[in-house]
Amino acid sequence: MALPKLKQDATDARLAALDLPASGWSRSAREDALARVKATGLPSRRDEYWKYTQPDTLVQVDAPVAEVFDANETPIFNDFDRVKIVFVDGVFDADASDDLALEGVSIDRLADAGDIHWAKDVYGVLEARGQTPVERPLAALNTAFATDGLLIRVTKTPSKPIHITYKHAATNSDAILHHVVKVEAGAELTLLENGPAAARFNKCLEADIADGGKLHHIRAQGRDHQRRAATHMFARLGAESVFKSFTFTANGVLTRNECVIELTGDDAVAHVAGACMGDGDFLHDDTVFVTHDALNCESRQVFKKVLRNGATGVFQGKILVKPGAQKTDGYQISQSLLLDDDSQFLAKPELEIYADDVACSHGSTSGAIDDEGLFYLRSRGVPVDEATDLLTIAFLAEAVQEIEDEAIQEEIVSRIEGWLTRRRG
Amino acid sequence: MLEIKNLHVKLEEEDKQILKGVDLTVEAGKVHAIMGPNGSGKSTLSYVLSGRDGYEVTDGEATLDGEDLLDLDPEERAAAGLFLAFQYPVEIPGVGNMTFLRTAVNAQRKARGEEEMSAAEFLKVVRAKAKTLKIDADMLKRPVNVGFSGGEKKRNEILQMAMLEPKMCILDETDSGLDVDAMKLVSEGVNALRSEGRSFLVITHYQRLLDHIKPDVVHIMAAGRIVKTGGPELALEVEQNGYADILAEIA
Predict the structure, then answer these.
(1) Could you give the CA distance from residue A343 to residue A338 in angstroms, rounded to a whole number?
(2) ABC transporter domain: from which residue to which, for each copy (chain B) (predicted)?
(3) Residue B61 DSSP one-character state
(4) Nearest chain A Cα to B103, which residue?
(5) CA distance A418 to B12
């Protein structure tokens, strides 16, 4: 079927401006992905899945200009013992990065020519699976055109986390990175990500977690104001495996974080959570799709948004329970705290269930600061600003508490406090 | 200490007068009790004094040691030494009880130009005070009042009072929802705080709380006014005969 003309034109224009990287082992995956993009076209504002978020600037040929933002603070996770890997505007920075050797883990780069056999089974594979029942053309575009990324294979539990840190240097940089993580049976990894990656960033993370494997993913986006980012996370979980992902987002004119999780082995656990804070010209979109396709799996989606001065928050979250996925325990909550009347929260929670012995719950709310709680705090002598901040942090707590590691939790809370303090008065 | 003169208060949102000329003076170191039937304005008086939204003072004044209370924000009243033990303590999910207490103590110290309490010092003090109120470590860690029983919530109010060391304490129906043992525990907590420089205004329906917290003066409030003032014997009279006799007597 022919695509609508505007969509066809926009897709043709973008594809004409990109070159398929000439890499060996990933070539066929890239060609397949390109075919997917051509078949569906890139997102347009008419697409149902992009009803609340305008994809135009993510699709257009040139990245809109974004000033480089100097956060003027110690970067997050800086004091952690970790293997740090740096990308500047999407380009690997060997000098700023640690040695890629880490016991129990092999770390390679997508841009290297070497034949990474194991990665072939994952690269573009989970992304392709995630294209049904809903198309995600920007992810296919990423698979086809990613210029670099990390290929991380975890065979034994390493002693420290891997930390990918992004830096933004050029005002018109347009970065496409694609990471693959394969956690082998029984192994466990913590993956950290932070930093403004580029003026426009298209990132894909595919995580294949074998039986009994665990992946903890903690990401901090921000505080650059003008960035545009479309990120995708695809996770496939084997039996008794665990995937926990938490994202903290501060600022950003346009951020779309998609997360697609497939629970394919019995007794697997997937938690995906997000805390975001937006002020003014801000749009943050969490789009989540969790598929239960095995027995006795647990999934949680916990998304909290603090919005002020006309900021917009979007949540599209779905739990799909396939036939036979009995004893599914699915939970989904999306909430916004609107600090004024100008901000808005748009939510589309969905459940689709084809098994009869499951427990699934979902809820979505929008509200202001609780007057009762505020008065209670003030009556104890806590000034109104401080009391409001305390209640704001409390609102985000359910999401932040999804982070298992207490030191990381504290690090995130300190960033939230910083954000609130800077916006006082 | 606390002086209320001719206080008139109406609801902000509707044309309903609740307090119709309250006059009350609580001297330093004294315990005053206010009793009265439902709807007489007892709780409104406590809310207006602590600065809750939703009320409009149409006439009169209230001062604490000569300072105009009605002009101050709730947090300023607290820093000035006023404390309200809530009839229904508010649950605050996501804020740990300990964090809440420490934030409050240090905010008041800061407002008064005093040095903040160090984490170690605070911990020592709070643990000692919690112990006498039978508040265990778990209750201190949990979010403020979340999942607390009625008795635990009231004990937590008294713990806050003990930590903040206010000079004017208002107890709004602190006995509601308490069993006999809990009432005794709460009362002991309050009695331990009685001192020359600290005054109490105890609002209650029933005389039984006053068996434990012995008042110096008892006021009867009805239809937005103090209608009768006397000694502790007045509370016994209410217990025996109800409010009807007293109201009939002054009518």
Answers:
(1) 6
(2) 2-248
(3) E
(4) A382
(5) 37
| pLDDT of B78 strictly over 60 | yes
pLDDT in tens, A204-215: 999 999 999 999
Measure the CA–CA gap between A192 and A202, rounded to whole angstroms: 17
d(CA B93, CA A414): 19
Scan for tokens 């390493």, then name that residue. Answer: A158
Q: Which residues contact B210 (CB under 8 A, 6 or more apart)?
A: B33, B202, B204, B218, B232, B235
Q: Is B145 left (phi over 0), alpha (psi -120 to 50) or beta?
A: left
B178-208 exposure pattern, b = at least 16 Cβ within 10 A, e = fewer: beeebbebbbebbeeeeeeebbbbbbbbebe
Within 13 Å and on the Cβ side, how many CA atoms surround B246? 23
Q: How confident is the model at residue A71 (pLDDT cuts 50, 70, 90)?
A: confident
Answer yes or no: do A397 and B75 touch at CB < 8 A.
no
Chain A CB contacts of B12 under 8 Å are none
B164 touches chain A (CB under 8 A): yes
Whole-angstrom CA distances from A36 to A140, A153, A177 are: 7, 27, 18
What Cα–Cα distance (Å) separates residue A424 from each residue in A222, A374, B99, B230? 19, 17, 21, 50
Domains contained in chain B, number: 1
Residue ranges making up the domain that contains B241: 2-250
**End-to-end distance of chain B based on CA atoms, in angstroms?**
31
- How would DSSP label each residue in B126-175? HHHHHHHTT--HHHHHSEETTT--HHHHHHHHHHHHHHH--SEEEEESTT
The CATH number of residue B71's host domain is: 3.40.50.300
In the numeric block, the tokens 């293997």 are attached to: A83
Helix, strand or coil for residue A115? coil
Q: Give strand pairing partners of B201.
A: B32, B170
User: Which of A365, A380, A406 should we substitute to test contact with B (largest number of B Cβ atoms within 10 Å)?
Assistant: A380
- Banded model confidence at residue B195, pLDDT cuts 50, 70, 90: very high
